[in-house]
Specification:
CATH class of the largest domain in chain A: Alpha Beta
CATH topology of the largest domain in chain A: Quinone Oxidoreductase, Chain A, domain 1
GO molecular function (chains A, B): 2-alkenal reductase [NAD(P)H] activity
Keywords (chains A, B): Oxidoreductase
Strand content of chain A: 25-35%
Number of domains of chain A: 2
CATH architecture of the largest domain in chain A: Alpha-Beta Complex
CATH superfamily of the largest domain in chain A: Medium-chain alcohol dehydrogenases, catalytic domain
Oligomer: homodimer
Structural class of chain A: alpha/beta
InterPro entries (chains A, B): ADH-like_C, ADH_N_2, GroES-like_sf, MDR_fam, NAD(P)-bd_dom_sf
Mean pLDDT of chain A: 83
Order of helices and strands of chain A: EEEEEHEEEEHEHEHEHEHEHEHEHEEEE
Radius of gyration of chain A: 21 Å
Low-confidence stretches of chain A: 334-364
Number of helices of chain A: 9
């Protein structure tokens, strides 16, 4: 088995992207054969078989040569991103064949991981493995650090979440409700608005695409104290106008390229805006895991994800993130463990179809 | 004396200002006569004779009807601002005739103060009274809270101060040196640059008007960790590009109306930007006074101020703030205590003349 050569398919970046990425910028190639052992010379290497790969918005930035805060992808090489994988072979004493792990891996069938930052062993397998790409992975940590640490919520405070159906946003809203806050969300379709109100318990939700005036929309839901920033640009300007004195803004992303003009309000309203990169907080993963597993076991957190199957569906899934087509987190599984759950003991599972694509909808 | 009526001259705002203010927007009027007693019906009123009035940048915003964060001035009424004054009569048990005070007062010979927030009794009279409009007043508190509290400096960190010869900026730079930081400043003339380097001990200074590219100018002095924000706009954009991860921005003002386009770097560099309004921190005045008096007594802090004499010189003095003409803090004294020092026991006093205007230069 170890000496047998098998094809290792990859999704590679054709060339650096200028402007909006297209599906054709990503190519599936199948011309590499590998042996399922960590090769000689790869000290501490860990060879994994990828099970779930995650589509995240920061991956778009990495397609551009000018990406400033993280290294761009290399044309001709597979994309890298968060995923769940099973160890096939390991020269690292911390991992052994058969271990389940999550962390940074490649968009390919098998990846040789040499930079294990983060690569975290999965201990709880009584939840779907795909959770480690979202509620128990990077988006969960992002929501936790951004809201609980930087937002410093107090009971009764008003919280606003933009991009609220996103993988991070839906968790921030639910963490906020669990902390006794009043939660306002925005999303870009009626379906998403309904989901936030009816399933996630947001107190107020508006469809930003239907608002002529974001400032006025937020004024209806005023007294904002905490803003979980996903968007930037005009939305940030509108939030600043409607924020109370001593408000806090936790900024994990700013998708918009628009300039910001109301920043003077940061001064006059004594607002604290703090950016953070979740990568710097993985030393606190255990603390986060305990916090979140408790609510998962109590059935107090819901999660919606989008899922596509097969490596070949990756490019379309990733680009769907940037057009607002997806709800929740976009993940896709490669062929082994093709069924949604490794250990299917969840309490409720309600698949629904939207926009012609399968959407899995979990109540934990 | 108390029943004698005397003329109370005032500088009033002619009408709300649109665009850049002109001297003619401010008018000296001399048609009011008052008695030097707190009038009947003014419970807890304090009548003061103004000695020093301070020109501050926020006063420009108050000339506009659309000022959002503080009430605009009322046309026909005297301007209000920070000043040093002597109590003439008081119905407030905390103050008695003869007390020296600093706080919010009017641009007039005498003011009836009914809203005593802040109105602080002056205890140390072994420094020039005018200090309470600057190093021991609002600008001093602003530098202290912004730099020491929000900036959280650590020894060896790189600090950048824009508008560094301003009343606040020159103190921030010196506090930073006292904390063992490396201090970079920007100012708008060669004279100011020399002053910062030669007298205030800044490690690096550049003239932002001579720089084609602010980003490149800052890159020469990179590794910024703390930015004391006075300017906003393009300067903030350039700072964001040159800031290290986990940098801190203490924002006490943003004069520029330019939009900001590099805010995404707040996220990617994990920057904390916090605005503050010194008005909310006066409960910590005693702590600040002890901290600063110690350095003043040890001769470790220098201060430059601009001074003009007579109420009638107020409009030109205030407008000079917005054209970069002034160095340090613009104050002007009304007729009593016309000499610069009430208690002239300071160690060094070096008047110099620049731009045809008297400039007082103190080494404490």
């Amino acid at each position: 088995m170890a000496n047998q050569e098998i094809v290792n398919r990859k999704i590679v970046l054709r060339d650096y992207v200028v402007g909006f990425p297209k599906e054709s910028d990503l190519v599936l190639i199948s011309n590499e054969k590998i042996k399922l052992v960590v090769p000689e010379g790869s000290e501490n290497g860990v060879l994994v078989k990828n099970l779930y790969l995650s589509c995240d918005s920061f991956m778009r930035d990495r397609m551009s040569k000018d990406c400033s805060y993280i290294s761009p992808f290399t044309p001709g090489e597979p994309l890298t991103g968060y995923g769940v994988a099973k160890v096939v072979d390991s020269r690292d004493p911390e991992f052994k064949a058969g271990d389940l792990v999550w962390g940074m891996t490649g968009w390919e069938d098998y990846s040789l991981i040499t930079r294990k930052d983060p690569l975290i062993k999965i201990e709880h397998t009584d939840v779907p493995l795909s959770y480690y790409t979202r509620i128990l992975g990077m988006p969960g940590m992002t929501a936790y650090i951004g809201f609980m640490e930087i937002g410093s919520p107090k009971k009764g405070e008003y919280v606003f979440v933009s991009g609220a159906t996103g993988a991070v946003g839906q968790l921030v809203g639910q963490f906020a409700k669990l902390m006794g806050c009043y939660v306002v969300g925005s999303a870009g379709s009626k379906e998403k608005v309904d989901l936030l109100k009816n399933e996630f318990g947001f107190d107020e939700v508006f469809n930003y695409k239907e608002e002529q005036n974001l400032e006025a929309a937020l004024k209806r839901h005023h007294f904002l104290v905490i803003y979980f920033e996903n968007v930037g640009g005009k939305m940030l300007d509108a939030v600043l106008l409607n924020m109370r004195n001593h408000g806090r803004i936790a900024a994990c992303s700013m998708i918009s390229q628009e300039h910001v003009q109301n920043l003077i309000l940061v001064v006059t309203k004594s607002i604290r805006m703090e950016g953070f990169v979740v990568f710097n907080y993985y030393q606190r993963y255990q603390e986060f895991l305990e916090f979140t597993m408790k609510y998962i076991k109590e059935g107090k957190i819901k999660f919606v994800e989008d899922k596509a199957e097969g490596l070949e569906s990756g490019p379309a899934a990733l680009l769907g993130l940037f057009t607002g087509r997806n709800i929740g987190k976009q993940i896709y599984g490669t062929y082994e463990f093709g069924k949604p759950f490794v250990v299917p003991l969840l309490t409720l599972f309600s698949p629904s179809v939207s926009s012609g694509r399968m959407r899995y909808y979990f109540l934990l």
